[in-house]
Amino acid sequence: MFELHPQLAKDCIVLGDFPLTRVLLNKDANHPWFILVPKRENIREIFELSEADQQQLLWESSYFSKQVYDLFKADKLNVAALGNMVPQLHVHHIVRYKTDVAWPGPVWGYVAAVEYGEGQLEEICQKVREVLMEQFQPACK
Description:
Helix content is 30%, strand content 22%. By secondary structure, the chain is of the alpha+beta class.
């Protein structure tokens, strides 16, 4: 049975589910930072997924990328599956702006994380629900 890795559960808020992936929002408000986690047990790498799941992951990641890129009017979208700290396969989707605090470098470890305010979380949840309605099962109301 699928369980979210404890570190992801600690660092993120569940926004909802695609057919294959659980969609998370990283609690760091420095960047709109989302994470897609395939709902499969004991998977560390994309190649460990079945061929059908690999194709579904690519579709969900691409669809999600386009939606958040447009929604947040990104200058760039960083998409990466690192897994050096958390072994569960997860794919980061980080909205970047030329004006953000870490531009053009990576966001990891550049500045301390800043928590979202309650209103900000509700706003992001609503925005994501609106753009993903047809393909997405939201966790937030």
